[in-house]
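---------- Forwarded message ----------

FYI, see the Amidinotransferase record below. Original note from H. follows.
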Amino acid sequence: MIRPHAFTPNPETAADNTFQSSAAQRAAQAVARAAWEEVTAAAQRLQAEGIRVHLFEDTGENDTPDSVFPNNWFSTHPGGHIAIYPMYSPSRRRERRADIIEMLKREYRVQDVIDYSGLEADGLFLEGTGAMVFDHLARVAYTARSNRADPITLERFSTHFNFEPMAFDTADEAGRPIYHTNVLMCVATEFALVGFDTFTDPARAGEVRDRLTESGRDVIALDTAQIKEFAGNAIELSGRDGRVLALSQRAYDSLTPDQFRRIERSARLLPLDVSTIEMAGGSVRCMIAGIHLSARHQGPQA
């Protein structure tokens, strides 16, 4: 996780991220302080659950307003693999940090780092686990097509990391593609949350539903209103007492009693207050870059 010291909704990403909202009515210093406090509290809640958290600081010196969302620029994978991604917005390219990769090499067993960031010069982008939602068990990379998820880069990544790409088209109420897959989809161990109403092709939506069902998961549909509340932007984590589903308070409040019941068959819900950070168009899932590497030393795993 990244704790930002100069957080603000990024005007550079607002054109295609319709989940963003303006902070115009709040002083910049107050917004930045609130975001800092939200990340601090979220990290403490996760640690209290027995989840190992690596918390890095971003002082804002490099003008990185979206640094609180590290899952977009790198991902980690079993077997010791790391991917570094090409980012659509120039300001987001400055978020990549060698010190984070070096920490992973020190603390975990890393075999290789594949860096796709050079594809930015060719206008080819793939924003990590924002653009792709992984089914690690069935080896499927679910991907909503957008200018942040180029099909060439997706194919290249999928070949290197042994995923089957499963792409689909989406649209919001204004007909614009959803900017990131992870705001409409969460794949956990025994269930999946999916905003099927955003799919433009009902047949493709059915194929995605069938594929998730075949993997043995309970497929829980989210409606458009719940997607707007970031109910799809959740992440399953391994805690001291079992699996937890981390999501925002706003997302938690949007769930129905039936959805609560189905989720809590296999994971305990863990709501976090990140209302300031959500102004930037992302929520709890975007704030966490999961670690799927083997630790060099014994201890709790992230």
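H. also flagged this: DSSP finds ten helices and 14 strands in the chain.
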